[in-house]
Amino acid sequence: MTLSNDKLIHSAIAYITSLFAANAGGHDAGHTLRVYRNAMRISEAEQGCDELVVALAALLHDADDHKLFHTENYENARRFLRENALPDETVEAVIGAIDSVSFSRNQERVPETPEGKIVQDADRLDAIGAIGIARTFAYGGEHGRPMEASVQHFYDKLLRLRDLMNTESARRIAEERHAFLLAYLEELRKETEE
Ligand code: NI
To answer: Do 27 and 92 meet the contact criterion of CB atoms below 8 Å apart?
Structure first.
């Protein structure tokens, strides 16, 4: 990416950090930054994607998350893109990628563009492996769920994510994280079984 794109990424990071700090007590800013790093790692290996669109869509993918914000039509993401005077074409590509990721979250639909596929993979990678385990138990604790319910979530969702990856490079990373989940469950079984 060019130097000015670099500056843009830095201001996007500052924007989402303050957005989450003001509206969600900093909640999920860490997730967003990890998704951004995952997305950059995947896009290096994928041909023919627009790296700037991937970066911005990853950084803004939860900026209008319904659980945290009460915005319509990706208002928070659009505000950043507008304030930075990005061409309409880029704005729509970024919003389209974000939309395909959040839409498919509920519908299990595969994003149509390479940028959407990469951001979806990057988001899903953050749900598995060591970080996925930490997030699952943190979420369960926050919602007063018993530990067993969090463990059940591994079987209901986390262990299915490896096979849902869109890109080859994400699948390779998912493979390692999946193996770690299985090793963790095996160890947990040993320690808790009578
Ligand atoms: Ni996310």
So the answer is: no
